[in-house]
Amino acid sequence: MLREGQIRIPSGCAISGIMNKKGRVFGGGDIINSIAVMHDRSNGLGGGFAAYGIYPEFKEEYAFHFFFDHTAIKNEIEALLKKNFIIASGEAIPVRKSNSIKDAPLIWRYFVRPKHRVLVKQEVDEEEFVVRFVMRVNSEIDGAYIFSSGKNMGAFKGVGYPEDIGEFYRLEEYSGYIWTAHGRFPTNTPGWWGGAHPFTLLDCSVVHNGEISSYDANRRQLEMYGYKCVLQTDTEVVAYIFDYLMRKQGLPLDVIVKAMASPFWHEIDRMNKKEKEILRAIRVVYGGFLVNGPFSILIGTNQGMIALNDRIKLRPSIAATKGDYLYVASEEAAIRQVCSKPEHMWMPRGGEPVIGLLETSQPTCVPVRTEQEKIAINS
Amino acid sequence: MKRVYVREEYCAGCGLCQVHCITAHSEYKGDIIKAYKKSFPRPLARVIVEEKRPLSFSLQCRHCEEAECVKACITGAMQKDPATGIVINDTARCIGCWTCVLVCPYGAVRRDETLHKVAVKCDMCAEAGGVPSCVENCPNGALEYREER
Amino acid sequence: MSLKSYVTPSFLIERNKDRCIKCKVCVQQCANEVHRYDEEDDEIISEEHQCVNCQRCVTMCPTGALTIRRNPNELRQNSNWTAEAVRAIYIQAETGGILLTGMGNDRPYPVYWDNILLNASQVTNPSIDPLREPMELKTHLGRKPDSLSIKEGKLQKKLPPQLELELPIMFSAMSFGSISLNAIKSLAEAAKQEGTYFNTGEGGLHRDLYQYGKNAIVQVASGRFGVHADYLQAGAAIEIKIGQGAKPGIGGHLPGEKVEREVSETRMIPEGTDAISPAPHHDIYSIEDLRQLIYSLKEATNYEKPVSVKIAAVHNVAAIASGIARAGADIIAIDGYRGGTGAAPLRIRDNVGIPIEFALAAVDTRLRQEAIRNQVSLVVGGSIRNSADIVKAIALGADAVYIASSALLALGCHMCQKCYTGKCNWGIATQDPHLAKRLNPELGAQRARNLLRAWKHEIQEMLGGMGINAIESLRGNRLMLRGIGLTEKELQILGIKNAGE
Questions:
Q1: DSSP states along C246-301
Q2: Which end of chain B is more exposed for a tag (fewer CB within 10 A), N or C?
Q3: Section C28-36 average pLDDT
Q4: Cα C385–chain centre separation
Q5: Do residues C336 and C245 make contact, with C-beta atoms less than 8 angstroms apart?
Q6: Residue A361: predicted pLDDT
Q7: What percent of chain A has pLDDT over 90?
């Protein structure tokens, strides 16, 4: 049977995310509780989490999380790492033995910084170098897979129900200011650890519920810009689109969401001249990044969390705020499980993002427009 | 009143208006083959296709406001219906004197001598009502049934 | 001494005497004078030698009395020397000339569109109902920058000029001369009503058509007929025609008989002279020359109009397209080997060029490999026969399609392939005023519009079925395609998987 990456596998899912906009860290217990409520939305073939602010002691290093199929490949990778990076620390990620989690690969993490002379030699900046390294390992080296590569953040994922994965990785022992989670319902795969969500690149993580019908249009557009879509999953594509538009193109967040879930032409026709010109330009130039088909995604970055639905809201997502906290989940119950009396709770419309930025962050986006987006930010 | 107007720039000169006119005025309406092969006498076409290539058009009675044929008719067979404005020849009263043929400025009245002599002309398919058959069946929209513009 | 023709009639006309009413409509309508009325016998006689099977008489006959069949008369069976092969030799032995033909390649080469199947959503993602949800086909053709710069809610740099299409279908180049003014008026009006474009071909823009300038792509071809400042300004885009699918590598020839007053004025050549378009542009012998012409035209129109370059699909099309993109074209139009023509040498039409499906796949792949796909829009033509062909073309990587044969069929063309005779009984490929008036442009526009609207609805249905509600999400989305009955190599070139994979 073909593994993830050799064949495209659609899947349904549950997602949940919690952030503290002041950047105060909290334990992984809440997110596990929240995703566990939506047990029936996944089928035990994939679960995972992304957490931000968990590695304060190594916040200047890239935290590489690896799956290794065997020790030999681990040694090979370590040699490769040593050649390219200064390794501040390396260890097996602590896990808890559990009956529900089987066939785990070797799971290691390394906190690394690219060597200056390597950067100079390749004439690229640090981030680009890391991206290329990740792409190279994941597409060319058999038996090793980097599933997390950001600073002061980490992804934890595997084959199993998300609550079991959370327990396996001992997530209650970590503290972060953003937590996202994913329970997966793939339709035709035995599940592969690398194929679980979240999918990450640098500090950008994506959990996603949906099946993107524009997949190949998006993929081929991305591959034009050097991305290699090794997993053939929607999530990977979404993460790369986000990386490309935000990091490489330096676009403001609101422009990115308008490219990924554009307003309809009939809506654009009703806008004022200035808006119309911008929206038309976004659709014309970034049409290949329009994400079509049902999706509800949660994107995490060091700056905050963004939730986005497809243009006609074919997948559920609901948002809530209470105090300094922002919640987004596939189902209301998943929020109420960990937040008994939310101050605001709303169902974002199709194509309408929920953008939660840290108060400390330097937002790269221009002010967002709609009321509900404001709630998300100002709450 | 509504009349049939020709757009000669689109008249293909095919003559289908005549075919359908004959059928519409035969006892076998709606069946061209029977109208041609069985009806006796076969009616004359009330429309005339004039052609001098590339010019061609289909001509029929204009149903004049001041119809010369009505004024000239010696038996009162040719009458203008005051309600519809359509000029109709009552064949029972027509004696075939051809005065109407003589006075018609358009040459739109024809002589039918198959049985007894009688003048025939476009009646705008008034009996059937609706759009005249020639207009209905023109394949290229070269005939229009409309008010004067 | 006269040379006896050995060419026997290709068709047999059967007249059902029980139905024929001798109304003479057939006699009147046949420009080839096949039918005549014999007064003495009160009979209509059909002289089949001249019959081209254009079906005009059959269609117009009010009693359905006529049938045209292939002449059942047969030469001795021979799989090598087919009747067609023999016939061609007789004709050439009699005329000493090149065999001419019209419309597109009719040889039984594979039609790859028919070996490609489309996807639809089931369970895991919902299909979208175009009757209830927006289904967007709006398409922009023109150069897209790599990135946008938006600062403080303002676009820092304007987009390069774009053609805006309400649906990804345009009418392909057909010149005034090759087709009648009424045919062009029909298409121009339909393009205007449906929010798309027609193409002047190398015929210039007749004064009556300037009102349709906003919907016109004005062509600049090797003969430069009808090209002047107002013409360039009038169009929404300019197309440099390098080649055409029906006759790659050769020029065009409009015989002097067709150059009547209107054609002569529009093309700016003397009445009655042959209009000969050279095989190459004599100022384009290389890609760098093309670049000069592209920028000359852009300069002449203040960089306000996209410039398209049209080429025939030939073996090395991917590399050529890449060169054209780099030469500064905003749109590349590729015409496949089945593309139509008003007149082409038969052997060229039937033997030169490659299928548009392969050309499109190869060009799209190549431009993406070079990361310049967004610099140009791809428009493909060369026998787009229905809406499914269009959906497949866009999924393979096209931005839009050009249709010409389909559009003429909508106007009444019956594919008799005799356009070059100028005796088109349907009033399309003719300048004979008696014949041209058979095409009422109001009815023609309505028919062409209906075709566009019908296809639009069908495209929307297919898109919705795939769970897509904007055409840009189909563009290059080859995962929506599967091959059937194709070899490994064909699948590889098309960049698609086999059905079941």
A1: TSTT--EEE-GGG--HHHHHHHTS-TT--EEE-SS-TT-SSHHHHHHHHHHHHHHT
A2: C
A3: 96
A4: 10
A5: yes
A6: 65
A7: 72
Rounded mean pLDDT, C462-478: 97
Say whether A180 sits in a helix, a strand or coil.
Answer: strand
Cβ-defined contact of B16 to C29 (cutoff 8 Å): no
Write out chain C residues lying below 8 Å of B142, CB-based: 440
Looking at the complex, does the CB of residue C443 fall below 8 Å from at least one CB of chain B?
yes
In tens, the pLDDT along A143-170 reads 999 999 999 999 999 999 999 999 999 9
Please indicate if any CB of chain B lies within 8 Å of the CB of C107.
Answer: no
Q: For residue C391, what pLDDT is reported? A: 98
Nearest 5°: the CA angle A110, A111, A114 is 110
Residue A13 known to be catalytic: yes
Within 8 A of A217 by CB-CB distance, chain C residues are 472-477
Q: To the nearest whole percent, how much of chain A has pLDDT over 70?
A: 91
Catalytic-role residue among A13, A204, A339, A365: A13
CA nearest to A203, candidates A176, A171, A174, A170:
A176
Question: Count of A–C CB contacts within 8 Å?
Answer: 121
Domains of chain B in start order, with CATH, are 1-60+129-149 (no CATH), 64-121 (3.30.70.20)
Domains of chain C in start order, with CATH, are 11-97 (3.30.70.20), 139-498 (3.20.20.70)
Does the distance separating the beta carbons of C25 and B15 come in below 8 Å? yes
CA distance C248 to chain A (A): 31
Domains of chain A, earliest start first: 11-54+152-378 (3.60.20.10)
pLDDT digits (tens, 9 = 90+) for C471-497: 999 999 999 999 999 999 999 999 999
Average pLDDT, rounded, for chain C: 96
For chain A, give the mean pLDDT.
Answer: 89
C97 touches B at CB < 8 Å:
no
* Sheet architecture: strand order including C481-483: C116-118, C481-483, C497-498
